[in-house]
Amino acid sequence: LARFAVDEHNKKENSLLQFGKVVKAKQQVVAGTVYYITVEATDGGVKKLYEAKVWVKPWMD
């Protein structure tokens, strides 16, 4: 999911972030599951932390 979040960010922002690692993650069960993920990614050779929220809706697969 973290790689998906980075890929989606890159598509929407025309960016070239490179996934590094997951630093922290938690989930919340609602209508589906919401994942809150802290991701380390490289932007222009500099490692930075990013917050991502991914909402998984199994009925939409």
UniProtKB/TrEMBL annotation:
Keywords in alphabetical order: Protease inhibitor, Thiol protease inhibitor
Cystatin domain location: 1-61
MF GO annotations: cysteine-type endopeptidase inhibitor activity
Keyword presence, RNA-binding: no
Entries under PROSITE patterns matching the protein: CYSTATIN
InterPro entries: Cystatin, Cystatin_dom, Cystatin_sf, Prot_inh_cystat_CS
Alphabetical list of Pfam families matching this protein: SQAPI
Entries under SMART domains matching the protein: CY
Family: Belongs to the cystatin family. Phytocystatin subfamily.
The protein, known as: Cysteine proteinase inhibitor
Upper lineage: Eukaryota, Viridiplantae, Streptophyta, Embryophyta, Tracheophyta
